[in-house]
Write a structure and sequence with these properties.
Blueprint: H1 20-49, H2 54-104, H3 108-136, H4 139-171, H5 174-194, H6 209-219, H7 221-251, H8 256-272, H9 274-283, H10 287-303, H11 310-326, H12 330-338, H13 344-372, H14 375-395, H15 400-408
């Protein structure tokens, strides 16, 4: 397998962003609303309906992320073998089956296993959308396309918990599971019938699955060791801040409502930036938003230990939201930019696994450092990880906007 990926054809990069409304953005909104509705319901159903402990309920919810991480690479292989259209159909069928099991389950063990399978199906859903955009949208419009998808997910994740809470209170939590399954299937049906050419498997069947995966990792090891490491740093910060901000708010005497205000304002600034960020990524390069994203989020974590009032924490929370907003869709865009045309599914599966390792590591880092030091030291250490990620992205990662072009034409400069 050659280290230089094959050039993408003009046909595969001819789709405009508006044409993705039915095939990507509307299904993404359906899916995000359903996912946002079901996630809070998972722990509540385990505790109140299955009468488990709080610790078991939290563990069961964590299995969703573990299932996603375990199935990242197999999902990439599956999509590479059968294409996005059929992979979506399979994932949707699994989601319906999971909803049935969740709603009828009386055993905590069966319930936990169903959540693990739920995470696996989510992995296929996420990768299928990313793979399709990676193939169909040209690199010059990909930043806007993927930042818009990230913004759509954020909007859905705001609406979902509100809708799920109303349905759960009015009709019972079982109906939240069915809402999620229904919206997932609706999104899959819209997406499958709207996907254009290129949604089918197109790569050769040469070599075994293990050989293709090994080839992807070996051929692109420098990308995984640089851009992948920067992605891990970003995901560590994103996950860690969700634990650090509420814990620090509690430490300085804020109540739950005040902590909620911090998160609400932070999320508001996060959502506002997603489309402008996409324009910047496409016009000047991915580093113009990725490096500031890492740097600003790192600065917010470094500043948290200096806050001791609600207003100070709100200001730092807003700064954190601005930093996160600067990275809207950045990990998806990097994966799409670096993915080789011949083994796109396998590459994106490994790429998502790298990012999910960072997501899973964030709370563990906070817990470990807090256990041996203090929460303030944990915040500073996590901010230091972000600074390291910004330096790696700035100086060691080739500008992704020009990466595919320089692979075809070595004489072309590698961007700013």
């Amino acid at each position: 397998m050659s280290a230089s990926p094959e050039p993408e054809s003009e046909e595969s990069t001819s789709v405009g962003i508006r044409s993705l409304l039915l095939s990507v953005y509307l299904p993404t909104l359906f899916f995000a609303v359903g996912q946002g509705a079901v996630i809070p319901a998972l722990s509540l159903y385990a505790k109140n309906d299955l009468h488990t402990s709080v610790a078991f309920a939290a563990f069961a919810v964590g299995l969703r992320g573990i299932g996603t991480m375990i199935f990242d690479v197999p999902a990439g292989v599956l999509i590479g073998r059968i294409g996005e259209r059929y992979a979506l159909a399979m994932a949707s069928a699994v989601l319906v089956g999971v909803a049935i099991v969740l709603s009828l389950s009386t055993s905590p063990v069966v319930y936990a296993a169903a959540i693990l399978v739920l995470g696996s199906a989510l992995s296929v859903w996420l990768l299928a959308r990313l793979s399709y955009i990676s193939e169909k949208v040209s690199v010059e419009r990909r930043g806007r396309a993927l930042s818009l998808m990230g913004g759509t997910q954020r909007v859905g994740n705001v609406v979902g918990p509100l809708l799920g809470g109303f349905i759960g209170a009015a009709f019972g939590l079982i109906w939240v599971f069915w809402l999620f399954a229904g919206l997932s299937v609706l999104g899959a049906v819209v997406m499958m019938f709207s996907l254009g050419p290129g949604a089918e498997a197109s790569r050769s069947e040469e070599g075994t699955v293990y050989a293709r995966l090994a080839g992807v990792v070996v051929d692109h090891r420098s990308i995984f060791m640089t851009a992948g490491l920067a992605s891990i740093c970003l995901q560590v910060m994103r996950a860690a801040r969700q634990a650090i901000i509420p814990l620090w708010g509690d430490a300085i005497g804020l109540d739950a409502a005040e902590v909620g205000i911090v998160f609400t304002l932070s999320s508001a600034f996060d959502v506002l930036l997603f489309y402008p960020v996409g324009i910047v990524m496409d016009r000047w390069g991915r580093k113009w938003t990725g490096v500031p994203c890492l740097g600003v989020m790192a600065a917010s974590l470094l500043l948290i230990p200096l806050t001791d009032t609600a207003w100070q924490l709100i200001a730092v929370g807003v700064l954190s939201g601005l930093g996160n907003g600067l990275g809207s869709g950045i990990n998806m865009t990097l994966g799409a930019d670096f993915a080789p045309a011949g083994n796109r599914g396998e590459f994106l599966g490994v790429w998502r696994l790298v990012g999910d390792i960072g997501t899973a590591s964030g709370p563990i880092v906070v817990s470990a450092i807090t256990g041996i030091a203090t929460l303030g030291i944990a915040s500073i250490a996590t901010g230091g990880i972000g600074v390291a990620g910004a330096l790696i992205f700035a100086f060691l990662v080739p500008e992704p906007l020009y990466y595919r072009a320089t692979k075809r034409d070595p004489a072309r400069p590698a961007g700013p």
